[in-house]
Each structure stands twice: as C-alpha cells, then as structure tokens.
Amino acid sequence: MDIVFISDLDIDTVIGIYDWEREIRQTVRLNIEMNADIARAAATDHIDDTLDYKAVAKRLIGFVEKSEFGLVETLAERCAEIILSEFPVQWLRLKLDKPGAVRGSRSVGVIIERGQRP
Ligand SMILES: Nc1nc2c(c(=O)[nH]1)N=C([C@H](O)[C@@H](O)CO)CN2
Questions:
Q1: Class of domain 3-115
Q2: CB 3.0-4.6 Å disulfide test: which of 14, 80, 86, 108 passes with 114?
Q3: Are 87 and 53 in contact (CB under 8 A)?
Q4: This model's pTM is above 0.95
Q5: 34-48 pLDDT, tens per residue?
Q6: Where are the domains of the chain?
Q7: Helices 72-86 and 53-66: angle between axes, nearest 10 degrees
Q8: Mutate to test the pocket of ligand 1, among 26, 98, 103 (most ligand atoms within 8 A of CB)
Q9: In sequence order, what are the beta bridge partners of 28?
Q10: What does the pLDDT look like over 28-86, one tens digit per residue?
C-alpha cells in the first residue's frame, strides 16, 4: 500500500477539559498517513491522479482552528471523518499530539486508524 503523509502539522485551537483551557489557544500537532495510488500519479505526473496533501492540510487547518472540543479523541475522530468523506482516501492513520499538556512529558495524545486498507 502506498502512502501520502503529512508530518508535524501544528495548529492552534481551543482544546481541553479544564476551565482555564477554554480561555486560551493551545497547539495540537497532526501526523497523518493516508493510502494513495502513487504509481498512477507517477505515470501521469498529474496532481489529479494523486491525493493532494496541501488540500488536505488546508482543510484540516481551517477546521481545527475553528473547533472547540474538550478531548483530543473527539478532534482526532472528526479530522479522520473529514479526510475519509471529502478526499479519495480509504484508510488512514492519524496521530494527534498535544505537546506540553502534561508536565514532565514531551507530548500526549491519541493514534487512530480508520477505514479499510485497500
Ligand atoms: N485521554 C485523554 N486524557 C486527557 C485529555 C484528553 O483529551 N484525552 N485531556 C486532558 C486535559 O485537557 C489536559 O490535556 C490538560 O493538560 C487530560 N486528560
């Protein structure tokens, strides 16, 4: 299976379960792997024959910046739903980090896989 990926996409948003977190913006970091047919695009050298990672990134930036979820789980699930429903993707692995959220750790977050592997 071929993969198109987006690495370390940092987006500021309102996220968190505590009152103080509802008053500030924090950075979440997205790492996403999505299935794609690399061979077809390589044969034609045309963007229409592959998954446009810039289009996916722009869509997620717009969504995440406006979102105000409590849990990282909810935000990750919604991002996965957007990718699977709006782009030619059948399977994805998405990691959502909330860097610095827990003192003493570099990062915390979730990793989800959704869809069917082709
Ligand atoms: N599994 C989760 N645990 C926690 C979450 C979360 O979104 N998922 N969130 C918090 C707080 O918002 C925390 O990030 C504040 O530092 C705690 N645990």
A1: alpha beta
A2: 80
A3: no
A4: yes
A5: 999 999 999 999 999
A6: 3-115
A7: 140
A8: 98
A9: 11
A10: 999 999 999 999 999 999 999 999 999 999 999 999 999 999 999 999 999 999 999 99
